[in-house]
Amino acid sequence: MIQETVGSAKAPGAARGGRLPKINPVFFVLAALLVAITLSNPNFVEPTGYMNFLKRAAPLAILAAGQIYVIVSGGFDLSVGSVITLTVVGSSVLLNNNADATWWVIPVMYAVGLAVGVVNGLVVSYLRVPSLIATLGMMITLNGAAFMWSSGSPRGYLPETFRFFGRTNIQGIPLIQFLPVALLVLIVVGLCLFWLMHRTNLGRLLHAIGDNPRAAQMSGVPLERVRIIAFVISSLSAVTAGILLGGFAGVSTDVGVGYELQAITACVIGGAQLLGGRGSVPASIAGALTLTAIFTLLNFIGLPKPVRDVVQGVILIVAVVLATYRRNRAGGT
């Protein structure tokens, strides 16, 4: 019945009446920013420039690609930044300077991420706690757990076997000279999440729940199960981002600070509707690249980090206002 009721609906953004499909404006914004970066720093067009840019953007892009599942279903996941921190700190403690332990430590961290996602989904779905509050509580809990686990300061180090995914570049690639492993991880994760969102019934169910939960439930959509899956995907994406960030910078107790809001901002830049029912994986990844491009451009101009925070806050506020306006306008027509 679910397949017939929800699956028969057209996918969001599909062409109607033979018209060409609309191109998300985020891609034009990203292109303009890349041109601006190139004008500010001509070396950006060299393989070292744009490949390092993509390498830096990969963790946020993966995080946004997972966050969009929760946003489309009508919620938020503020716990992803703390999941990143717990992944890095927990891995360093479990590895205990033993490179041979990498093969089992990474699956353990994914199991932790799975548990976090399930708990978030259960609290939101069955206890009816707003996702903003539930995941904020989880964020505080995980940050406290990471602090206690590390005794307040990073211990040990992450061996090269662990840092391989975020740090290693495959050399000798024609034309581009090298290919970051982090970019390969982004491509694989992005394709998997694209397929789940846009080529399976899960994506249609998520959009149905975010657009009108009551109507979706009356149509036979299993709201609780779908929402739990969305939070699990978001948490597992955060673990992946944490593994990449651990490869970049090593062990730090604040490695994930601020990433939850950056992921939400990236999704909003990509056109996601914060009240649910609208969003796509490619646009969210493009939003993450756009946000990274904004930060890169501000850095080239010489503006300090506080300015980046102000810009991110303004983008988020404006996007929320526009999303609310569009939804109210659509409801009035």
UniProtKB/TrEMBL annotation:
It is a multi-pass membrane protein. InterPro entries: ABC_transp_permease. CDD domains: TM_PBP1_transp_AraH_like (cd06579). It holds the Pfam family BPD_transp_2. The chain crosses the membrane at residues 26-45, 57-89, 101-124, 131-152, 172-196, 228-251, 283-303, 309-325. Keywords: Cell inner membrane, Cell membrane, Membrane, Transmembrane, Transmembrane helix, Transport. It is found in: Cell membrane. The complex is composed of two ATP-binding proteins (LsrA), two transmembrane proteins (LsrC and LsrD) and a solute-binding protein (LsrB). Part of the ABC transporter complex LsrABCD involved in autoinducer 2 (AI-2) import. Probably responsible for the translocation of the substrate across the membrane. This is Autoinducer 2 import system permease protein LsrD.
